[in-house]
Amino acid sequence: MHLWQEFIRNIFYSGLTRQDYDLLEADINEQNRKALRNYSVIGGCMLLLLTVASFFSGSLAAHSNTLAYGVSALMMALIFFAAVKLAPDHPGLVRPLVYLFELTVYAFATYISLLHRDLPAVSAVVMLFVGPLLFLDRPINMAALTGLTVTVFCLLAKTVKDPSIAADDIWNMITFGILAIAINLFVMRLKVRSLSQHRKITHLSRIDLLTGLKNRNCYEAETKGLFDACQEKLACVYADVNGLHAMNNEHGHEAGDRMLQAVANEMSVQFSGKYGYRVGGDEFVFFIPDGDEGTIQNKADAARKRLESLGYHTALGVACGGKQDGDITQLVKIAENGMYDNKRSFYQQPENNRRQRR
């Protein structure tokens, strides 16, 4: 059973689990979209040059290929337009565009290979190797596409080519088709695993592992453009955990870690973790695009009360700025000052002041 499961993982998910592969779908889509953009330009330019050259060629064979060149060049232009203009907003188009590109290339190579009935096929065999390596996809899909191409080519070769040449072509296409599938399985596994490792490294560089929120590095990189994500205004909630040092000293760092995790979790519940950051040891910043200030203040109060019921105390400051202001630094500063006012009020209470001294 283990070998069968490993085989399924290899042909469907390039050696990853389904869950890990699904996490890469967006990255795979974007890589394929960029590849489509680049390869369609390269292929389109080459085909356009061949189309123009065929008009000035004295060869009858070149003239007979003009229509194939022109139609293939037009397909490349359409694929380029869709990859650049449509796919960014409709990522579901990327995979069909990949298959359309592959089928266009295979159809062109097959046509050229079958055009000369007394010569062995070369273009179709070459594209069996090159085609699947241009994009990232599940090996089973590329294998099916390769198998379809080989089947169609063999049926056409048997029909239109000289019998002796057709026999060699069919043998070569089947042999090299199997080899191409094996190579694609190996290369796709390397590519997908590399992409998975890159994603994990990127994730670790942006995420605070203790709380699951984004870290300070991510905060510095992302917050400059947050006003652009708003329609009218942006709210900021600045949180500081009271008594973390005393918690670590009295109950150990594991207890302090649980406190931080509880604060991060409750703040994420109230404000969503999409724009939530741990910016210091016990400091958190959350941004809410186009949120109502009164609602946000109520949620901050609810978070504070919920945490107090767990035995944790958090100082919170809330600020709201219009999009026309666009000063994220000033917005955060106002929220931070509100947090410090809240913190001072907390420690002015005698029981909390004693806790701070301990």
Structure description:
By secondary structure, this protein is of the alpha+beta class. It is 70% helix and 8% strand. Strand 2 (276-278) and strand 3 (283-289) form a beta hairpin. The chain is elongated and about 100 Å long. Residues 354-358 have low confidence and may be disordered.
Which percent range describes the beta-strand content?
A: 5-15%
The number of helices is 15
Largest sheet: 4 strands, antiparallel
Strand pairing plus helix content: what structural class?
A: alpha+beta
Q: How are strands sequenced across the largest beta sheet?
A: 2-3-1-4
User: What Rg is obtained from the alpha carbons, in whole angstroms?
Assistant: 30 Å
Distance between the termini: 59 Å
**Mean pLDDT across every amino acid position:** 87
Parts with pLDDT < 50 across at least 5 consecutive residues: 354-358
Morphology call:
elongated
The total count of strands amounts to: 4
| Share of helical residues | over 70%
Oligomer: single chain
- SSE string: HHHHHHHHHHEHHEEHEHH
